[in-house]
Amino acid sequence: MNPSRFHSVLLEEESCKGCTICVTTCPVQAIRVRDGKACILQERCIDCGECIRRCPNQAKKARSDNFTEFQRNLPREDFFQYRVALPAPSLYGQVPSKYTIKEIHEALLSMGFNYVFPVAAATPGITAATRFILDSRESLRLGNPVISASCPTIIKFISIRFPTLLKNISPVIAPAELAAKLAVRKIEDTEGRKIPREKIGLYFISPCPGKITETLSPMSGNKPIVDGVFSMKDIHLQLLSALKKNAAGGAEKTETSGERESGQTRIFQDEIAWGRAGGEAEAAVSGKRYSRISVDGLIQCEKILESVEDGKLENIDFLELTACPGGCTGGVLAVENPAIAEYTIRSRESEMESTPEDLGDTQFHSEKPVRKEEIEPRPALLLDTNFQKAAAMMEEMEEIHSQLPGLDCGCCGAPNCMALAEDIVRGTAKKTDCIIILKEQYKELLENGRGKE
Q1: pTM (2 decimals)?
Q2: Closest C-alpha to 169, from 223, 219, 211
């Protein structure tokens, strides 16, 4: 599966009304309306999910597994015998802080999982890898500042919009990928025996489409290790119901999880902080040894990347960028208000212990969570590989743009007049797609017809 061609944002044409709201609000201009229906330009899509957030007709969906179908399959003998939930750190901000993390895990167990291995428990390994990378920047030939690789949407955005900054991206794998590897290695049956991989089903609980894409098609180049992905939205009501039921003492006894039995997946303050903006940078770049900046929201991330490209941030060591406002707490597939979710996570942090110093080093040396594959640029904005032809096309674009009304209304099905000019040059649109030009031509046709009379 080619990571650059796989996407988790899908369009349901029967629900699309062709309203162009998604067209004008897509941050990377990856949507057009043609023949009354939206279409996603796959080469430009970065799986940010903004169209899912904005669409009033719910015509945009995230590719994820059906949780109801998962629960329906639980009695089957050919289904995974050991089902492992891999909740993203942001999940702990989705339910009120009156419920403890242990109670959240207990609720997941009562929903059909046998084990819970939090993605947060894998973050110390990523933190240790990041510190190693910062210490080894020169030998690794990384640019400055080093950019976090934890938000796959940002990485895709850089590969399209800022390809010269690909050398700045930290060469580490995604936390969910490391969590899956650690889960397979650590989970044992009730008698302490290692469980064969084919009997283990790994299910990531995701806050956004970007992480779904990364989980099912890792940019590390590795084969996907996770067997399924559930949206936080899809499990939220059942999770709340299970929490209330368990709190009332109505939960049935479930198989004892590795987490409750041995404490091997206990999570700490620095780890849960990854669920909010700034948490990764705070964990990885502690003290005054390195300087750091954390930015959330794609618009602000674009501005800071422009500053990096202009060489204005060479004094900064580490840059944490998250596409969603508020970080993963503001993910498109999250449910709770991002501000409330962040408050909840911070409240939980205040009651937790700091991560033991040796935990990250142990994960780092045992699993080596460093990405070997280089991330390649995606030439989605390239007009042509031939420089002279591309220059001629650019001149043509400018000429066409000067003839357009400049209203940027989106009625043509493109996000703005310059995008329409580009589409015309590429041969996927025509001038009369602009309703102003079409109206003028129709008016001229009527006047000429009257003149002949």
Answers
A1: 0.90
A2: 219
